[in-house]
Specification:
By secondary structure, this protein is mainly alpha-helical. Helix content is 59%, strand content 5%. The termini are far apart.
Length: 88
Amino acid sequence: MIDPKANSENVQEPESGTQPTLITKGPDMLKPSTEDKIAGTIHEVKGATKEEIGKVADDQALENAGNVEKLAGKGQKIVGELKKAVGE
């Protein structure tokens, strides 16, 4: 059985109505540029999925929303690359 309190030093108590936040310390912590690139990729995939579902379902609004999210993801990845270039 897994003890939910086993890593309690890594979990910050959430405010009412929110999820717990994992506190990362040391070498396991991601750089902000990497976080942006990962989040951008996730948005690109979600956007592409919405876009394709919108095409199949003939739902122009969903297709457009997917395209916007996909473009936002590309933008976020560019921000990550810029942060990496300046050393953040």
